Amino acid sequence: MDQLSLTFAALADPTRRAILARLARGEATVNELAEPFDLRLPTISKHLKVLQRAGLVAQTRKAQWRPCRLEAAPLKEVATWVWNYREHWEASFDRLDEFLQSIHHEEHEEKPK
């Protein structure tokens, strides 16, 4: 599977997105990452493995402490991929704006004075 597909698959789950949001604030242990969820540690560990396979999370060892940290490089690739579609959605918004303005103009022309 290519990197972009791995990243999107990892981001598809709301728990994993919440874990990444927490790690964006700084390193955290598995226990700290598990705190806001009603999930067992093995389940959180499985989510972390998916994030690690996608390259979004790295875990290091500091004595007995094994903090996790965010690795943002795959997110940059996603942002670049999405950015390539910017012209398309901007054109769609422009067409929508033109349509709404035409409706507004027609409504004002039809009203008796």
Automatic annotation (TrEMBL):
InterPro entries: ArsR-like_HTH (IPR011991), HTH_ArsR_DNA-bd_dom (IPR001845), WH-like_DNA-bd_sf (IPR036388), WH_DNA-bd_sf (IPR036390). Gene3D superfamilies: Winged helix-like DNA-binding domain superfamily/Winged helix DNA-binding domain (1.10.10.10). Residues 1-90 form the HTH arsR-type domain. It holds the Pfam family HTH_20. PANTHER family: SLL0088 PROTEIN (PTHR38600:SF2), TRANSCRIPTIONAL REGULATORY PROTEIN (PTHR38600). This is Metalloregulator ArsR/SmtB family transcription factor.
